[in-house]
Structure formats: C-alpha cells, structure tokens
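Subject: complex prediction, re-run

Hi both,

The earlier run crashed halfway through, so I resubmitted it with identical inputs.
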Amino acid sequence: MKSAIILFPGTNREKDMEMALTHVTGRAPDIVWHKESTLPECDLMVLPGGFSYGDYLRCGAMAAHSPIMKEVIARAQKGVRLLAVCNGFQMLVETGLVPGALLHNRSVKFICKQVHLRVENTTTDFTNAFSRHQVIQVPVAHGEGNYFIDANGLKALEDNDQIAFRYCDATGAITEAANPNGAVANIAGVFNTTKTIMGMMPHPENAVVPHVNGHQGTALFQSLVEALG
Amino acid sequence: MKAVVKVTLRKGVLDPQGKAIESALHSLGFAEVGDVRQGKFIEIDVPDGTSKDRLKEMCQKLLTNPVTEDFEIVA
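This time it finished cleanly. Structure:
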C-alpha cells in the first residue's frame, strides 16, 4: 500500500502518522506540501492532525481550499481511499465529502486524554481487522471535536452504516459520561456513503506501539493493508 | 466600499462559547443576562458597487459553514 500525507502550514501530527504508517505497513508514506498541485500515485491519502492555518476562520476551513485539495477531492471522488484524523477530519467536513460539522467541545476546553471507542462497522477497508463492537482505547487531543449533524442527517448516517466509531465506556456502553466533547450520538468517526473515506477525531496513529498509548489503533492500519495490499 | 458580513451559529446549534460568556457575565454580577450567542463580524474591502450576490458567494464558499452557521450581509 502506497500512501501520501498532505502537509499544511500548522499541521503537527504528520510525523506521528508517518511513523504509524511506516511501522504497520512497512512502507514510508510520501509527504506532500499543500501548495503542490500534483499528488504522487497512491492507494491512500491522509489528512493529518494539527492546527492548519492556526484554525483561522473555522478549523479546517482554509486548508479545505488549499491548492492540493482540488486533487485530493478529485481522487477521493474517484474512490482513492482517504483517511482524515482530527484537524484532517475538520478539513474533511469543510470539503463536504462527509456530512456534518465539528463544533467547539461542549466544555469549551481543549481535551487531551485516552478515550474508549466502540467500532460500529467492520465491513470497510478502514475497519475490517476489528471485530464488531470491539472496544478500543486511543487518545483524543482537540478543542473542536463536537460532531454536529441534524436529525435527518443522523438518520441517514445510521441507515447507511456510516458511523465508524462512537465514544463509549470501558465496557462498550454508549453513555453521556463517556462522551468527551458533546458529539451527537457519541459519534467519533464517520464514513462517506461508499465507505472509501473516513474521518475521525481520535488519533489511531498515536496508538500503534505498546509502550506509547497502547496499540489498539494498529488494527485500523492493518485493515487498510488487508484491503489495499 | 467596505462590505460587512455577520456570521452567527444557526438556531438549535449549541454555542459553548456563548454559554461560557453567559456564565462569566453571571459570575461578574450581571444577573439579568439571559442567553448569549457569539458570532463573527467580517469586514471586506471590495470595489464600489460590488453586488450582494458576489458577497453571498463569498459567504457560501468560504466565510461560513452552511451546516452550522447563518450569515447576514449588513452593509
């Protein structure tokens, strides 16, 4: 699997993603500056975490219009897999490739801690190595991760199995107390309708080795290797 | 001319910053304060005679997120 990480001014998690992809897939990703207009051939594109453009205007809003994004969006629309994490997820919703928006955390505080996620759909290229309703522990680090979608949009997500992960407690129960940021229906990650694009707030790339945050994010990258070679 | 755009969170969208401001005002003794909503105010220099439609396009393409925000071109 060949992958490419897009780097924006203010991105700060590209190295973490690079290390995770290299560690799990055995192949180092290309890192592509946002001002490029061409993207190397790849099986997976990644929008990493950070604070692109200092979160000016709205988090992710400026990056969503960076020159390289025309190509990223065009390829994603053709079915090239796209993974978007944290600030990358904020960009992704701004492009409209997945529905919803990300608001300030309910607490108005930046949250940096371990959370539990329940895997909601294991039939996708991003999640096939998990078991259904498996509970994993991964870190979150965000100020604006409060996923918002209206009631009709939520119903469409649920009907099409587009919810990837929900915040849960250690036993897998989807509770209000386990919801770190106020996200609608405890949603931590979503797919597009065809499941070729996934956006999520938590950081699976920071949970791939046992001695740092555990390694329960590894299966996400193993899923991609399984699907894309 | 200077165009002015006011951006607000849509009705029904929780505004945690507004809520924080509201409780800070209460703790400063402004007990009469009710609901507080926070928004943005954007000034844009554009040639005289720039149409409302052109400004509307700017709002739709970049200045606002239609999922969560409403806008008003106030000048």
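Chain A touches chain B through 19 residues (CB under 8 Å).

- K.
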